[in-house]
Amino acid sequence: MSDSNFLCGNCRNVLCDDCRDIADEYAELLIMRSNALSTANYEIEKLKADLSFTKRQAAMWEELSKMGMPEIILKWMDSLKVTA
């Protein structure tokens, strides 16, 4: 049985064992819910970043696909140049 953060000492003393157990279980479920929401928010932010990266890549590939072959070869050759 864990300590409930939302019950004061007087309330805990007045409650029967069953009610204290229910209050402790509620507090534990509330913590688990908060942790799950935090994890979900982290995953959402990570997926948003991945989506943004993928959109940028798709835009680049779309631009390349609309170019003619000479422009693509020139871009490729420019990317191979080493600055001295």
How are the SSEs placed, and which strands pair?
Elements: H1 9-14, H2 17-66, H3 69-80
Helix content: over 70%
Q: In total, how many beta strands? A: 0
Which strand-content bin applies to the residues? Answer: under 5%
Distance between the termini: 69 Å
Indicate how many domains the architecture comprises.
Answer: 1
What ranges have pLDDT less than 50 throughout 5 or more consecutive residues?
none
Coarse morphology: rod-shaped
Protein model, in words:
The chain is 81% helix and 0% strand. With 84 residues, it is an all-alpha fold. It has one domain (9-80). The N and C termini lie far apart (69 Å). The model has no long low-confidence stretch (mean pLDDT 85).
Summary keywords:
3 helices
Short description, anyone?
With 84 residues, this protein is an all-alpha fold.
